Amino acid sequence: MPAVLEFEKSLVELEDKVRQLREYSRSQGVDVSHGIGLLEDRIAETQTQLFANLTPWQRVQLARHPDRPYPKDYFQRLLTDFLELHGDRRFADDQAIIGGFAKFDGEPVMVIGSQKGRNLKENVRSNFGCANPEGYRKALRLMQLADKAKLPILSFVDTPGAYPGIGGEERHVAEAIAVNLREMFKFQVPMIIVVVGEGGSGGALGIGVGNRVLIMENAYYSVITPEGCAAILWRDASATPQAAEALKLTSADLLRLKLVDEIVPEPAGGAHREFDRAAELLGQAIRRNLQELRALSPAEWVAQRYEKFRRMGVFSEPEGIRP
User: Fold this and answer.
1) What's the pLDDT tens digit per position in 282-301?
2) pTM
3) If one looks up domain 60-310 in CATH, what number appears?
4) How far is Cα 176 from Cα 184, in angstroms, rounded to an integer?
């Protein structure tokens, strides 16, 4: 049964009434098209009002929607000839990061994505989308292969963060992410990053340095989850919506702050309602950005990436401390 978020209930109730009317019409042979039409107009109006006024916390909930398309769902719709590659050649094959060679619009690319599961078994296998050090080292190995083969890199981000357990610390997760950050600035190929769901902290950045950073309309990108922020600053879980507001983590906030380059629109009601349409809109954005990047030289790709991230953030220096 599809999951329903609290703020979606009024919309889902109207949609259920339409289904019931259609079933009644089929079973009884009664024409109720006028009533269905009125309800569909009401649904469209409710949907427009509801999703035009979402709070940051509600957008976080949408980004985590259990029915939302994951990177693998986009792979299936946007790519052909996907050849998944496994392992980091050091420790293990982390299923929280998937990737390999594929074709986008008939052209070869390297794709990487953080992956969650649809059920408990899949989530345990993928560690609920939280990568261990070996996941980031696998991603790095794939990016190095792409650089050697001169293939564009497409990276799909959907993770609450890197795995915070003892094993990750023992195998140096911070070092693995740091190495990825350093190396991603050096690759002489075009790199496009897409935040399709959750973009959590260093876990997202570990595969998130690119020439273009795109974000889906209802995705989020943040230095910490709202729950973590509420626990640290307010020490109160009920402050989570307040933390989401303060973090400026929505796609609109991130575009305004110039932390992302483009917002990819979603189908009415969110990407979880129309996988195919969501993939189509994302494919259009990737296609356009990749075409623009292909007009540049390898040296320009590297310089653009460096300058892009150097411009992020605002700081000031007190008077009298300059040498």
Assistant:
1) 999 999 999 999 999 999 99
2) 0.87
3) 3.90.226.10
4) 12
